Amino acid sequence: MKPVRSYLVTARSKATTGIRGFDEITGGGLPHGRTTLLEGGPGSGKTIFALQFLVCGARTCKEPGIFVAFEETSKRIMANAEGFGWKLAELQRKKLFFLDAQPEPDLIQSGNFDLSGMLAGLDVQIKEMGARRIVFDALDILLALLVDPAARRREVYRLHEWLLARELTGIITAKAGGDKSSSMRHQPFGFMQFMVDCAVILNHSVVQGVSQRNLRVQKYRGSSFDEHESPFLIGNNGFEVAGARTLGHVYATVINERVSSGVKRLDTMLGGGYYRGASVLITGFPGTAKTTLCGAFAEAACRRNERTMFVSFDSDFSEVIRNLASVGIRLDRYVKSGLLRIVSVRTITGNAETYLLRIKTYAKEHRARCLVIDPVSTLSSSANELTAHSVAERLIDWSKSGGTTLVCTSLVDEMSGRTLGMSPLQISTLADTWIHLNYLAQAGERNRGLSIIKSRGTAHSNQVRELILSDAGVTLTDTYTAGGEVLMGTMRWEKESAEHSAKEETEVARKLKRVTLDAEEAELEVRVKSLQTELVAKQVEKSLLARTTASRVQELSRGHTRMRELRGADAAKPERK
């Protein structure tokens, strides 16, 4: 009686694949000690996926592995994998064994055969090297030699039981149809999907003329997993899968630190600058200075000694440096010092997923804390609408999870009439801060205007400011209105000149009036002093008159008294004591 097996797969019982993104989708990797079916069309990456799984086991998990090749020879497989930097020759000595099991091209089959002999030989190799992982690549090549469906089923079950008995973590690769709609269910040995514990489907298709690669975990017994399709890329390091954000996803710690935009007056409009780790979108028509604002931000970041990466879809890095130098933004010194890396994406070919994964790889290599993508709207031209929006979401999720401050530009086509923010990327709905640049045509000229459409978590200006570019750098003017209309450029200069002249005339008239009033005041003061002098004279004259009158009365009184005494008419009155 066979023992009852536990089919609850925990994180500890999963075998990591070393494939960035895939282990996130599956919650840790492939089921440890179980069998996984990897199916896909030609060129979908089955062999690379399986080989990378073995390399990770040998290098990281101390689990030696065996690669059984039914289609390509081991020499060709190793030659094809040289570009990934896995150094298979070093691993092949003790930790990785290749078994060439390709049927001869001129093979003439006579009777039935089974896998017993090959499995017996593998038993010896497993014991010798202590192998814990194994891959059977292109098993369908061998099974196709068995005409009888019952015989194919028997050998698959034989292989499956052999793997389970030895508790090997195994991968079986097999071909599916060349298009996305086809699957192993329509193949003569499609029953393998129902037998294995995990099934992964790889797709490589062309949608609206754009190459798309994606994978989907079709089943995973005893474990939760992301059931949606996830884009992947075969890059310089092998398989790279764009892991989707899952429920409960936690960003890096939210902080209130501000970083400068590189334009002092824009920082003021934003209430102190961008938030650290925020996503910033700068939209505008061609020529409205979107790249210039990006360059100002990159220069400010380098001045803070922060490693920065500038991704340009429009120009070569030397052109970016030259063009920004014309407005006083000097980036060449930071490129030489290694603080700034400018990447021209013209050298990258592929779809939006390719762009995203390449950008993430370059940013990780540079250890960038600030990232500029100019313009990010290019991604929408290399993907359909669903893919483009998914790329935008994952770009922002990735930057936030790492605390990277992201500044992107998006081109608005002036001639198309497309509503602002309604591009396939839909990144405007995801960005934390949205700055829009446009042209204001007045008096036969165009002037650049800047406005902040939104800035989450901070008070910000609602005014439209004129953006000025000069040799001295980038700045914003104060808002100037007349008759309810914002004036810029020549019209503003003319209006300000007229107001200045009127102000000067008013000042001259005021000064003249002041002089006149001062003269009249002086005249009045003189008249007041004259009247005061005349008043004093009158007061003195009045006083003298009063004293003279009193003295005269007194004198007359004494004269009358003396006269009476002399005449003897009256006796003198005795004095009172």
How would you portray this structure in words?
Helix content is 38%, strand content 23%. The model is unreliable at 1-9, 178-186 and 415-422 (pLDDT under 50). A 9-stranded mixed beta sheet has the order 5-4-6-7-3-8-9-10-11, sandwiched between helices. A 9-stranded mixed beta sheet has the order 16-15-17-18-14-19-20-21-22, sandwiched between helices. The protein has a two-stranded antiparallel sheet with strand order 1-2. It contains 16 helices and 24 strands. The chain folds into 2 domains: 11-107 and 114-241, Rossmann fold, CATH 3.40.50.300; 258-476, 3-Layer(aba) Sandwich (Rossmann fold). The protein is an alpha/beta fold and 577 residues long. It is rod-shaped and about 190 Å long.
Helices, by number, come to 16
Shape: rod-shaped
| Beta content | 15-25%
Radius of gyration from CA coordinates: 46 Å
**Tally of discrete structural domains:** 2
Low-confidence segments, given as residue ranges, are: 1-9, 178-186, 415-422
Q: According to CATH, what is the class of the largest domain?
A: Alpha Beta
Query: Helical residue percent?
Result: 25-40%
Task: Please tally the β strands and state the result.
Answer: 24
CATH topology of the largest domain: Rossmann fold
Given helix and strand content, the structural type is alpha/beta
| N/C terminus separation | 164 Å
Report the CATH superfamily of the largest domain. P-loop containing nucleotide triphosphate hydrolases
For the largest beta sheet, what order do the strands appear in spatially? 5-4-6-7-3-8-9-10-11
CATH architecture title of the largest domain = 3-Layer(aba) Sandwich
Largest sheet: 9 strands, mixed
